[in-house]
Amino acid sequence: MTLRQVVSSLAISLLIFSLSFAQTPSNQAPAKTEQELEAEKKLEEKGLALLEELTAEAQSLKLPENRLRVLASIADLYWPRDEKRARSLFAEVTQGFSEFTQVGEANSPRSNYIQFARQLRSEVLRLIANHDVKLAREFLAGTRPIFLSLPGAENSAQEAEERLEQDLTMRIAASDPKLALQLGQELLAKGVSSQLLNIISQLQRSDRESAVKLFNDAVRKARSEEIGANRNALSLIISLFRLGSRPPMEVSVVNGQVVTESKGEPLGNDQTLRELSDLIIAQGLKVLASTNPTDQRAMAGARSVLSQLQSVMADIEKYAPGRAQALRARLADFTKLLDPRDRAQQEYRMLMSTGTVEDLLQAAEKAPPERRNQFYQGASQKAAQQGDFERARQIVNDNITDQRARSEMLASLDRQSLMRGSDKIKPEDTRQIFEQLRSDEERANMLAQLATMTFRKGDKKQATQFLEEARALFNRGPETFSQFNAQLQIARAYTQVEPARSFEIIEPMINQLNSLISAAAVLDGFYEQPRQFRDGEFVLSGNFGQIGRLYQQSVRELASLARTDADRAKAIADKFQHNETRVMAHLSIAQGLLSPQRASSSLVFGQR
């Protein structure tokens, strides 16, 4: 089948049905058959056997950040099956962080050693917190002295500790509302802070009664404190007002579109919101009055305050209409002091954030000629976000006079419409989309995505045709990063449609990866970027360069394929020549076998 035939077939398919990413789940999943249960049992047995091997393999890794990452990931996988062993491994990881105190010249701050150590500690903390918040607090306290003493970390160590405390507190708020309330009250004794607001926000979803109590206490605390012309304090009060005046939002994807819905009631009542409105007005006037228009640094900070005040003005006017007039007038005067370019950009950001398509079109008519296209493009994007691609195209056609810019915008809209499964796209438009793509890599990527969507709708034959056409675009192995990525995209699509073909694509790419990684080891340090190797070992931190990302994506595909043929996936992983890359590939496969649904909480490659 030729590309043109595929395009024609695709156009017909798109006109028949609208592709959907989100389906309404049934109330109850069908019971698994005895055969399915037996298959899952065998996969788990293979995964556990691989974990046994990995526990020994981890000791062969030279770099502490690599070894501890693997051990922590193994502990995570063991936890639901053998909690005692998992706790023992997490204890070993905690003790292992003492190795980071052995810092020499090769491990100086300039080589990102401290950054890697901090990143790993943060990730391990989150991982432990998924299982046991108390153990996570012990881990944080037990490793704190090490990180406070690291050379070169003195200036930022305390700030890093506060961020970790905040992250852990958020997790506590989700899992233990009673403890979260206690921590929130302890924080409140020191004043209103962003960490406190995060706790209230999380409690709003898990324990509304505690959230309301903590919110009201925070309002009283804010009103009782004497605050000067302090921009940071004003930002916190505005955030507190937003938290109290707006219901919690839930984001979901329906028919390929992001849908945001309010769930529940706001935390604040009219009285507390009036009190906060009065406080914001008073503090806003103070900050604006104290800002020197000739001080560029002060004006830069004031612009942020200006944006925040403008974002809540409509709500403030609702609760304090009389006093709000003075603040609105002051904001208008202050806006006139801004540089014209800054003022226009401020208006654009506000309209993109809170305005409608009509607001953007009206602003375009008033904007100077050199800025009109920005507003028209924003209006088109806003219409596309709402799923109205017909209007988005009309806005571009009616208002963008530059032919090249107009063509690029329309091509972008066509691609968005195609991938969202719009039933408004015409067959001739679909053909034009493919003809406008500039490279075989782009065509292959789009065909792979279309194959995945088509397969999800139950049409395996059409999905296979798309993938055959995509694969035919490459007659030999990849020669560039983009070609490598494109072939990985094809392999990923085949994982669902026909896994055996995916193995056929991935296996020969391992040898090429071995060569690329060896070359990267030789060239490491000659590039102006964070080094990827230390003591001859690939640092598996997640801060990858291009070659590292290719390796990462390839191993993820192997992990996905492991559930269809675990032995073949492991045999391919065994072909990695570098010890650390082979160990991490084995770990990723074990995760695919034992806990594919929890990939987001794994430390594999430092991804969250």
- Strands, total number: 4
In one word, what is the shape? globular
What class, by secondary structure content? mainly alpha
Largest sheet: 2 strands, antiparallel
Count of helical regions: 27
pLDDT < 50 stretches:
1-27, 104-111, 422-428
In order across it, which strands form the biggest sheet?
1-2
How far apart lie the N and C ends?
A: 41 Å
Proportion of residues in β-strands:
under 5%
Radius of gyration: 28 Å
- Average pLDDT, rounded to a whole number, is 80
Helix content: over 70%
Offer a quick outline of the entry.
By secondary structure, the chain is an all-alpha fold. Helix content is 71%, strand content 3%.
What keyword list fits this structure?
single chain, 608 residues, two-stranded antiparallel ribbon, 27 helices, globular
Description of the molecule:
By secondary structure, the protein is mainly alpha-helical. It has a domain of 170 residues. Helix content is 71%, strand content 3%. Strand 1 and strand 2 form a beta hairpin. Helix 6 packs antiparallel against helix 7 and helix 16 packs antiparallel against helix 17. The two termini are 41 Å apart. 37% of the residues are buried. The N terminus is likely disordered.
